[in-house]
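Quick bug: peptidoglycan glycosyltransferase output formatted oddly.
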Amino acid sequence: MRERYLRTDWAPFVAALGLSLVGALLVWSATHTWAGPALAVRHLVNTAVGVVLALVLIGVDVRWLRAAAPWVYLAGLLGLASVLTPLGQTVNGSRSWLFLPGGFSLQPAELAKIGLVVGLAMILAEGRDPYARPGWRDVLPAWLLAAVPLGLIMLQPDLGSALVLGVLTIGMVATSGASWRWTAAALVGTASAVVAAIRVPLLDPYQVDRLLAFRDPALDPEGIGYQTQQARLAIGSGGWSGTGLGQGPQTQGGFIPFQYTDFVFSVAGEELGFLGAMGLVLLLGFLVVRGLVVALRCEDPFGRLLAVGVASWFGFQTFQNLGMNLGLMPVTGLPLPFLSYGGSSMLACWLGIGLLACASGREPRPVSSWSAPANLRG
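Here's what came back:
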């Protein structure tokens, strides 16, 4: 076990820790006028628990992780199914929460990302020649594996989480070496599913308004249109160096509802300025790039797919959250990794860091002995 810790690539761990600590400051700034330090402290507690889980995962041999992959995937499905029972609670129109004793809450869709990454890596790497191109017999089970949690999430409905699962699935299948036709078909299918969810309508009216208000904020001027306009105003008013932590007029005035969750980047833009906000973006981008570097260096197909799945997840979720803060993407309720307040998201993201570390610490394959042919022996 000690050797695995020594081989681990700790750079993503350090970057994630830095983001989490800055996130606590941003959460404090957005909430201290009405909640005191309580939410910032809970953010730090969630970070500490996540760090412990990541350290535990680093010590797990990747072969044990592969053996446990079916159970991890099934645990994710069990969580998604449980919110559709009377145990589930509806928050903001989406039945996606479990309220636990002691005042704790859990969003199973966040932890389902871990289950799908591990499950897909197992399916796409199991019993296959790593140098052979996957055929439909390899790819079709992967898509079926992804379709189950996607369907359960859309029944809540939670379009943002469903898009994350769809994108990480596309990334992992494409990286497995499957034909580009499978990736193209998946992209078309994802776009069609989003259109169908709006047209049926599978989404609640307020969720449809979120998507349509992206094109025309006047459609929901007192709701999501107002929120996005105020977020852009806060980011634009920060200038190069910002107004100073706890000094932003928009943030301290409470003009942006639930700013400490999905719109926490607007706090950074206003109070840390362009330079501070870009520093956070660079750290998030570093996590994505480092995940891809781990994938390139990993010889084991299972570990390589784990790294690609986490990088795809972090990359898309960051892009989507920053886009909706800047008015470039519709609002889908996705938190910004490590920075937004939320226990389930924080734990899932730190488990993702643990998966990256587990893949980077994979023991190198033993080099098999080679015997010269008889006619070349002296």
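Actually, after a second look the formatting is fine. Residues 2-69+109-363 form one domain. Closing.
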